[in-house]
Amino acid sequence: MARRRVAICDLIGRTVVRRNLVAGNWKMNGSRAMAAAWCADVAGNIGPAGAGEVAVCPPHILIAAVVGALAGSSVRVGAQDVDVNDNGAFTGQTSARLIADSGCRYVIVGHSERRAGYGESDQLVARKAGAALAFGLRPIICVGETRAQREAGDTEAVVGRQLAALLAGIVPEAWPEVVIAYEPVWAIGTGLTAAPDQAQQVHRFIRQRLAARDARIAAQCRILYGGSMKPDNAAQLIDQPDIDGGLVGGASLDAGDFLAICAAAGS
Ligand code: 13P
User: Fold this and answer.
1) Is 7 a residue whose pLDDT tops 70?
2) Which of 2, 36, 105, 203 has the fewest CB atoms within 10 Å, i.e. the most exposed one?
3) For 239-260, how does the pLDDT look when each residue is reduced to its tens digit (9 = 90+)?
4) In angstroms, what is the span from residue 111 Cα to ligand 1's centroid?
5) What contacts 173, CB < 8 A, 6 or more positions away?
6) Is 183 considered catalytic here?
7) Among 107, 228, 238, which residue has the most ligand 1 atoms within 8 Å of its CB, making it the best to mutate?
8) pLDDT value, residue 210
């Protein structure tokens, strides 16, 4: 389906257009052979950059191959994590400088798997986003509640706290480059998707929180949904007024499914 572009007016009356973004997060999956086949399929079928944007975030070790294979297509490449340091003696880490130098445009920051599995705090996530922005990368910053937090009625408190750290740590001028991804942890890799109105409710809350700081930031910021997004539920989710695309895990590994989700987003 063709997806409308969202146009709204900011406080001084200018029209702000948010382009949908569909980003694939391969997580720690794939191989050189898989990446070559996937890129050939997606680059061959994606069409020119239209109303929406498309990006793919492979593991670091595959980034160079994916950047090369997608050269000349409209598909952007991103990394899945970034170190806060610029360079130096940090064995095993990857800086924003290196990620940008490798041809990436995006980097995922603060994914729940990193917050839970590697102890990333809200403040560290904000610093990582700042490091990415300093090198011209667009951070896709993940927020979201666990099942226990939702059942306790704490969704807005948790997401609000995560956002507060970002609003405190990222300077206002940098916000036009920031993408937020609302990823309810209970919907990630489980096949359980937030219902479109349930997701929209949290997306609206996020935009209101941004607006409380600065209406222009709220109008410009793209807020993606992530959590078991598939070809058969993508259109309904992305059609919600405050959902500006998707961060897609499992379904992004299959080029056909990923292309179908991009089509649902008009990307
Ligand atoms: P799934 O689409 O596999 O649920 O993963 C979502 C996600 O974590 C994307 O970052």
Assistant:
1) no
2) 2
3) 999 999 999 999 999 999 999 9
4) 10
5) none
6) yes
7) 228
8) 97
Query: Is residue 60 annotated as a catalytic residue, yes or no?
Result: no
Q: Is 245 in the pocket of ligand 1 (CB under 6 A)?
A: no
For residues 184 and 144, give the distance between their C-alpha atoms in angstroms, rounded to a whole number: 5
Total residue length of the chain: 267
- Ligand 1 center to residue 89 CA distance, Å? 32
264 lines ligand 1 (CB under 6 A): no
**pTM higher than 0.85 for the full model?**
yes
Structure tokens at 36: 């070559």
The answer to whether residues 62 and 45 touch, using CB atoms and an 8 Å cutoff, is no
Pick the catalytic residue from 113, 145, 177, 183.
183
